[in-house]
């Protein structure tokens, strides 16, 4: 039996026996994913981030005996950078490649009134993660724990939730080294400057996920166009040159927009019924042209400002890991 199938086999027999079975059942349904289905190769570039994640998450899972004592894995890992740069994608890739259960929750869901009391939810989240180990808990927008605006009640809820989260992160270290059931916490933020010291200290590795450089943009465009027919004159290098400052998500939007343009032109001015009558095979045959790309680049503007990038670079130079 392959390693992946062995993990699945064990997981199918998992039984949660924690203190909140109903809450656990709902969490299991809503945020638990046993196979997020993203491969390393689906993530363009980010080689430095991949290297750090290999060392802090992947290898400790496969060689727990080596990562003991002074070599113990980091309690938590933070990925920070502008939105749409691949933080969630990378977390999914690590979980997929390691056969880990993936639990994806945004901090605002934990902070809000979602399913009632936040601390109970947090405790249950970690219990469930242990039951399904090896597990990766991915908490998006982790900064929102430290920057709550609004009523005194909201402040109090958030303060207590943060204390509970800190306790759980501290507990990860002990349970990982004694039970052999590894639970890894990966957090992400677009506002690292909002994290307070207590949380920052627990997120021992802090990985900067920058905007894609030229080579990464090329790779990202190629990944997006894997299954798409291109006209011979399409020059991916030129598209990559023209998209400096665009995030991975912006680039994906450009590829999507360009790839739909041929169909759009074909049905322009036609009613829905007339459009439906155009032969599918006719539309499928239309290749994406360079003009489609240039139009899309013109239409879709970069979403990240230079101020945002400077803010991240400054935080990286002060607190980032390499
Ligand atoms: P973040 O979590 O940093 O806000 P996501 O990981 O959700 O960003 O990325 C949003 C989308 O952008 C992805 O689903 C993917 O289509 C695209 N994308 C962003 N960065 C990359 C990358 N490095 N490689 C491939 N696709 C990417």
Descriptive report:
The protein is of the alpha/beta class and about 325 residues long. It folds into 2 domains: about 5-210 and about 310-320, P-loop containing nucleotide triphosphate hydrolases (Rossmann fold, 3-Layer(aba) Sandwich); about 215-300, Helicase, Ruva Protein, domain 3 (Orthogonal Bundle), CATH 1.10.8.60. About 55% of the residues lie in helices and about 10% in strands. The protein is built from 15 helices and 6 strands. The protein has helices at about 5-10, 20-30, 45-60, 85-95, 105-110, 120-130, 150-180, 195-200, 215-225, 235-240, 250-265, 270-275, 280-285, 290-300, 305-320, and strands at about 30-35, 75-80, 100-105, 135-140, 185-190, 205-210. Strands 1-3-4-5-2-6 form a 6-stranded mixed beta sheet, sandwiched between helices. The structure holds adenosine-5'-diphosphate. Adenosine-5'-diphosphate binds near residues 249 and 252. The site of adenosine-5'-diphosphate has 17 residues, from helix 4, helix 9 and helix 11. Belongs to the AAA ATPase family. Keywords: ATP-binding, Nucleotide-binding. GO terms for molecular function: ATP binding; ATP hydrolysis activity; microtubule severing ATPase activity.
